[in-house]
Each structure stands twice: as C-alpha cells, then as structure tokens.
Amino acid sequence: MDDAPGGASLVTLRRRLSGGPESPGAGIDAGLIAINSSGQAPWFDLKPGQALVGDVPVLRVPAIVHMVHSFSAWSPTERSTIAGAFLERGAYAYLGSCHEPLLRGFVPTPLVMRRLLQGLPWSAAVRFDDAPPWKIAVFGDPLLTLGPRGPRIAGDLGLPGRPPRTLTDELTSHLKARELADALRTLALLGRDADAARLILATAKDQPAALTPEFGLAGIESAFATGDRAALLTCAEALRPVMYDAQRLKTDGALVIKDMIWQALGAAILDDTLTEREARILPHFLRLETLDRDRAEALRACEAALGKDAEAIVGEAAARVRAGK
What we know:
This protein has helices at 10-17, 82-89, 109-117, 122-125, 167-176, 180-189, 193-206, 213-226, 229-239, 246-251, 255-264, 266-271, 276-281, 291-306, 309-323; strands at 32-36, 39-40, 43-45, 50-52, 63-68, 91-97, 136-139. The protein is an alpha/beta fold. It folds into two domains: 10-139, no CATH class; 167-323, no CATH class. The strands form two sheets. The chain has a four-stranded mixed beta sheet, with helices on one face. A three-stranded antiparallel beta sheet has the order 2-3-4, with no helix packed on it. The radius of gyration is 21 Å and the shape is globular.
C-alpha cells in the first residue's frame, strides 16, 4: 500500500509490475485493488507521472477494483478506457465514474474498505446511504461480499453415460498427440503455470519448429504469471509475425500481450538494462495507443543494448504499427 502525502509515482508502479523477489511473476496478484487518482478515461495521474491505459496492471488473479477517478468508466466496453482495460484483464467487480462526479461523489476509500471488511455487499459498500446515484457506475455481482473461502464439496455428479473426462485426461491426450498449444492452454486451466513455462523452454530446445504464433499465444500468460523471463521471450518471439496484424490482435484478444511485454520488461526499460535479446524483441510490441511514449522509451533502451542499429529497428517497427501491418 502506498499511502503517503506523495502517493505513488509512475516509476514505482512500473517497477512493481515487473515483478521481483517479493513477487516473482510480473503484473499484480492482488484480489482487491483501490486507486485514488485524477485524469480522464484513457489516463490517470500519479505523483509524479501520468499513467496511460497500457500501464493498467495486468492481473494474475481476478480482482475487485475501486477507482476514485473521473471518467474511468466513460466507455467500459472499450479497452482504451481505464475501466475497459481492467475488465479486459480480469476484474470481475469494478467501481468507477462514467462522467465527472467530483470527489464528493465517491464514498471515501478507507470507509469502503471498512464496509467491505464488515461484510457489507459490494453495491452497498461503495455508495452513500440514502443518496441518489451520481455518475458512479458499479459493475459485478451487487451482493458480492468479502469473507472466508466457502467449503469445497467433492462428489460424484451422477451423470449418465460415460464418465466425464478431466482436464488431466485432456492434458495427457494433448501431450501424446504433440498438440503443444492445446497442452499449454490446459496447463493454464489447471493452474500449472510453472509446468507450462517448463514445456515452453523444452519445446524451444527440442522442437523449435513448433514455436508458432498459436503456441506463443497459448503459453505467454503462464510465462508472464510465473516471471520466467526466458519462457516469456520465447513466446514473444513466436508471436512476432502477428504483432502488426491489427485485425488478428483484436479477434484473438491478444492486444493485452503487448502490455504484458512492457510491464514485464518495465524495470529494464527504465534502467536501460535490456539484454540484446530483449532489445530485439521489444520494438515488435510497440502499442498504437501509446506509440509516442513507447517509441521514445524503446529507442533509448535499445540503443544501450544494440547501439546504432536501434534507430532503424525501432523506426521500422513504429511505422508498421501505424500502418497496421
């Protein structure tokens, strides 16, 4: 928690999203996120620094998000807004404003937290008592409450016919058939991200021809979640051919992958300590919505690793992003 007169800076946020000893995986693994900020739908101010939509944390677990900030939910179906980015990343409950309610439109964040910890339902905890709605949008189950995990009851479902196949059965089948992308997806569903990262590295060593864009798409979230940089870069290299295909990025839901790369490499970008391999990968993940900042940061960081070749590599990548091909 950053709760001080100075608040948290953009640099602080970006370093935290890169992972580290306390949180080996990149992104955020918090189940409850509360932010007080100011700005507009596509950006929010930190102290100092202005965070863009691409800086919205990629979530490693589903989360409840409480955002004291004007316009964040102005168009929540669009990933170009803060609410849209959080919902895309896996927020299952969100509080934000759809216009300018001013600060008095929000229940103070400490009071919201106390209400939630006392068992009030989500919809009641985030609104003033006996007050009309005031440009505040509440997403998610209105009766959601915080509390101890419910008991898990195992038993036979008693379904007629053949016994149901488990995910473990599916995994065994995919591995025997060398359906590696399907195997990676199944490992992710099983919560076995570390095993997925090991499979990625083993495939790169023993079967490099299998490193297709589909393989990269299936494995990159597990690599990101575990903080396995080598596995992440392997998937990123496999995905390079489709990173300029705007239509495919949208239909595959893969735009967030670009944010993953920037968040995972964030500390190295800020410190100009990219390896040569990272510097050759990063330009292929420039983001259209933050292109000016991405290009400037990539050029500076890549120059430290690649020297005079960086300008041509980053410039070509930026031109392809603008052209969408």
